[in-house]
Automatic annotation (TrEMBL):
InterPro entries: aa-tRNA-synth_II/BPL/LPL
Protein name listed in UniProt: Alanyl-tRNA synthetase class IIc N-terminal domain-containing protein
Source species: Vavraia culicis (isolate floridensis)
Top-level division of the source organism's lineage: Eukaryota
């Protein structure tokens, strides 16, 4: 049986993986200079 991944579930799994690897989670920001 195949698990259906929603975008929300995928994002949460991705972030959780990096948290468990001791990476720092930072808020997104624009890369366009002001």
């Amino acid at each position: 049986m195949t698990t259906k991944w929603t975008s929300t579930k995928l994002r949460e799994a991705f972030i959780e993986y990096f948290k468990t690897s001791n990476h720092t989670i930072v808020d997104s920001s624009s890369v366009i200079p002001h």
